[in-house]
Amino acid sequence: xxxxxxxxxxxxxxxxxxxxxxxxxxxxxxxxxxxxxxxxxxxxxxxxxxxxxxxxxxxxxxxxxxxxxxxxxxxxxxxxxxxxxxxxxxxxxxxxxxxxxxxxxxxxxxxxxxxxxxxxxxxxxxxxxxxxxxxxxxxxxxxxxxxxxxxxxxxxxxxxxxxxxxxxxxxxxxxxxxxxxxxxxxxxxxxxxxxxxxxxxxxxxxxxxxxxxxxxxxxxxxxxxxxxxxxxxxxxxxxxxxxxxxxxxxxxxxxxxxxxxxxxxxxxxxxxxxxxxxxxxxxxxxxxxxxxxxxxxxxxxxxxxxxxxxxxxxxxxxxxxxxxxxxxxxxxxxxxxxxxxxxxxxxxxxxxxxxxxxxxxxxxxxxxxxxxxxxxxxxxxxxxxxxxx
Length: 389
Hints:
This protein is α/β, with parallel strands linked by helices. It contains 14 helices and twelve strands. The chain is globular and about 65 Å long.
């Protein structure tokens, strides 16, 4: 059976050059970077190189990059680290209703412990209006956290404008850039970002390794305590192979950035045009103007997205009904709900995300099978386009 993977926002395959860079660190180059003998020092050099590679991708300094276990850990560290460090200054945090659950659940935990959180509404296209943020700020606000690119609908937020508002009020600004890294241009200095979360497995690197950018001079509380790894900020023996893989993935992403963006956008647009032309009652959620180059979040009226997913899977096609971190939940997408999409339509939504290895031939195969699946499900549905919802 032909296999077509269209869930690159859930995770990406590890590129061959990244894997080749990692393999020696499972075998002959297994030294602990904290050791003082030669093998350990060689491992430390490899960590330093990876730190530089990741930093270069976002125009940061190497010492501003702290490796973590994943993007979720980076989000947790950012919000808890700031909340604890600035608890004497204030207890108010601002975020949005469309954040990843790593941020939303962290904020909900803080609410149970005396903190106040404002969850900003977004426009129907998924963007946050700067004036909406401005109006939410109080004299107790210590952190503003707004994701760079939404993981479900691909909306790119006006981060520079939002960060500027935070700066004018002397408030720290964090962004979850897990979906943005290597998919949109990121210059943390130009954008005015104080903290930024990243993950390797979204940019053709390995799973189990992320990073938190912390602007030089900014002090937040540690999240994991123990040894003095990560410049004394994040304890735990380093995931050597993962760190090396993240560094190499960042280097490769930077070298092929324009090519990657162009390819993904072309294939994504081909998918959207073909689906909307050949399948009636299908529409795209979110803005097309400011959007992740590989994201196509599409609602198919009158049917269930989960049924589409399962039937496509029988054809060897992998898609998602939302974020991979919440796809097992029966609750409607909190992101689409925030965009104002009716509940019955939310359940008929599928997220397609293309990547470097997706071809137009893949899209032709997907749409051919998708038409059959949608037609079959609508024939079985108790509602149809003539009756409406």
